[in-house]
Amino acid sequence: MSERMPPQMPGMFSMKVERDRTLRLRKPDRLSPWGNLVFRGGLVAMLLGVALAGHWFGRDALVDTVDGDISFIDVIYFTMVTITTVGYGDIAPITEEARLFEAIVVTPIRLFIWLLFIGTAYNFVVRRSWEQWRMRSVQKELKDHFIIAGFGTTGGAAVHELMENGIEPGKILVIDPSEEVLERALSVGCITLMGDATRNATLQMANIEHARSFVAAGGRDDTSALIVMSARQMNETVKISAIIKSEENEFLVKKAGADTVINPVALGGHLLARAATGSHVVDYITDLVVASGRVQLIERRVEIGEVGGPLTSCKGGLAVRIVRGGKYYGFWEPEAQSVEEHDIVVEIVPTGNAGANMSVGDAVPPATG
Fold first, then answer.
1. Inter-axis angle of helices 107-121 and 33-57, to 10 degrees?
2. How far does Cα 115 stand from its chain's mean position?
3. Three-state SS for 315?
4. Residue 194 CA from chain centroid, whole number
5. Count of CB atoms situated within 10 Å of the CB of 129
6. Residue 26: helix, strand or coil by DSSP?
7. What is the CB-side half-sphere exposure of residue 357 using CA atoms within 13 A?
């Protein structure tokens, strides 16, 4: 689902995360959890068999203080109380060879079996219970958050821009099936969820019902369409944006439920055409779309004091467009001469990088409209 991210992305994140460069070969586990449990049980039985066989064939070196006779039941009994470190003392080794066997063979077996028991209890009881409790706790706290489905080049850039716009990393949830990719998201402070974003169970775990915005960056157009469809099915009001690579799939992804569809290939072509006739326009467009620029495009709801006045009189920034009933009106059109209560204003505001000649204090914080 995730796009491949180049090994180095200069300027993508403000902090550099040191990563282990050592090559690691990994493959899926051959055994299921129950298969793993059976394997551990078999290993314990084998080790007990080794200790039992050693005690049986060396029973002449054992003494029974009760009846003086070492039977097979006595050997089983002695093996169990020795392995479990109970040691009642009614049966004991009396020769140097027997004591050497206890020290060199039985003691390591005892320790290894205890480690197996402790590890099994941790894996199947403690860790699983802890992880389930922790996931439920994190899920309850997920409200008004941003979900990024796919942490490739595009998804990573989206996370970076959200953080540059003042969104806390703890409010960003990244979904991706790759553990290595999620490690990168964790390193910048995001919440992560390993899974398939096209599945309802994954989106339900991400608490999409209470999400503020959803970004589909699946790496393939068909994957993004499925992600958008699943997200829209589970939340009819969340804002969904998606990225595509083929212009012919734009209608398909919008039909699936995306509010905004971005085609970077087509957008890049438009910018190249503009750059062919002059570089200043492209520079300004780039300045508008990145948080590190001097100015920024934002959208917000109309304030009460602005209702009834023209769009050009809106305070906070340079208002260029209003959105009314799903339609767009520019500042020169008649509809923009009287702003209404439920309009959305799109305006240009200065950022913290604007310089001394621009009033940063007058800038309006980014809003979701």
1. 160
2. 32
3. coil
4. 6
5. 10
6. coil
7. 2
DSSP structural state of residue 367: B
The DSSP call for residue 170 is G
How many angstroms separate the CA atoms of 363 and 358, rounded?
10
Give dist(CA 222, CA 147) in Å, integer. 19
Our CA angle for 356, 357, 361, nearest 5°, is: 70
CA distance between the termini of the chain: 29
DSSP-derived pairing of the beta strands 239-243 and 211-216? parallel
- For residues 102 and 93, what is the distance between their CA atoms, to the nearest angstrom? 8
CA distance 227 to 216: 6
Distance, in Å, from the CA atom of 279 to the CA atom of 172, rounded to the nearest integer, reads: 35
Contact at 8 Å (CB) between 348 and 288? yes
Helices within 70-152 (DSSP H only): 72-83, 96-101, 107-121, 127-141
Residues 42 and 120: their CA atoms lie apart, in Å, by: 13
Joined tokens for residue 356: 């001394």
- Alpha-carbon distance of 110 to 13, in angstroms, equals 51
Angstrom distance (rounded) from CA 254 to CA 101: 74
Q: List CB contacts of 2: < 8 A, sequence separation 6 or more.
A: 150, 151, 152, 155, 176, 177, 178, 181, 217, 218, 219
Lookup result for tokens 């078999």: 42
Q: What is the pTM of this model?
A: 0.56
Residuewise pLDDT in 10s, the chain (369 residues): 544 444 444 444 333 333 333 333 334 456 666 777 777 788 888 988 998 999 899 888 888 877 888 889 988 988 888 888 777 778 888 888 888 888 888 888 888 888 777 776 666 666 666 666 676 777 778 889 999 998 888 888 889 888 888 889 889 999 998 888 888 888 888 888 888 999 998 998 899 999 999 999 988 888 899 999 999 999 999 999 999 888 888 888 999 999 989 888 777 787 788 788 777 888 888 788 777 778 888 889 999 889 999 998 888 789 999 999 889 999 999 999 999 999 999 998 887 765 433 333 333 334 333
Q: Residue 273's Cα: distance from chain center in Å?
A: 38
The length of the chain is 369
